Amino acid sequence: MRKTAVIIVAAGEGQRFGGPKQFVTVQGRPLLAWTLDKFIQHDQVDDIVLVLPPAHLNRPEFQNFPKIKAIMPGGTTRLASVQAGFKAIERLAPEIVLVHDGVRPCLSRDLISRVIEAAVSYGAVVPIWPIPETVKKVTGKKVVRTVDRKGLFTAQTPQGFQFKLLAETLNWAQEMEKESTDEASLLEQRGVSVYTILGERTNIKVTVPEDLTIAEAFLELENRSRL
Q1: Domain range spanning residue 21?
Q2: Along the 227 residues of the chain, how does pLDDT read in single tens digits?
Q3: Is residue 16 within 8 Å of 87, Cβ to Cβ?
Q4: Structurally, how many domains does the chain consist of?
Q5: What backbone phi and psi angles, to 5 degrees, belong to 207?
Q6: pTM
Q7: Which domain CATH number covers 80?
């Protein structure tokens, strides 16, 4: 039976938020707990490695979650945090590895399933969402030009990879001293094909306080739909 492990990256300090947003309380629970639920409740996810800020490794609310096999200290960059999580994943020997932002709590079960299946088929996959607004290139306060948004998409998580492919890419990134804001772009830099699937409009990343209000609304709708 195919084994899938998930690295949940939640090591940020929340500079744009005014503090670590993954621990902000939403409906009586940390935001990160809502994210964890989505993977814990998914029957195709076997193991989870959680990456937290070093000062928060012993937070009691995350010590007894099922499927969490390790809680690792994050690094100073996203890549360093993912590499820390991957070290714990290696001993679990999964076939598929997902990497997900801890502050994206509103993804669906269906999205997780589709990422896993696409990773099995293609090796590397990223969920994307089309940019709906007009895009301007700006210098200072002056518009330089309007960018044709056809073919432009935002990248989401979870991003899915076959284990060997991600291992090779993370080793390469370390040797070449590469940095990146997501794992898929590291594969792109290596010349490896990354495939896409359609993400979800609700799968937002909580970055600023206004995002939290939107995420709370989406989670409330989810809870109501279960009643």
Answers
A1: 4-226
A2: 689 999 999 998 766 666 789 999 999 999 999 999 999 999 999 999 999 999 999 999 898 888 999 999 999 999 999 999 999 999 999 999 999 999 999 999 999 999 999 999 999 999 999 999 999 999 999 999 999 999 999 999 999 999 999 999 999 999 999 989 899 999 999 999 999 999 999 999 999 889 999 999 999 998 887 76
A3: no
A4: 1
A5: -120, -40
A6: 0.94
A7: 3.90.550.10
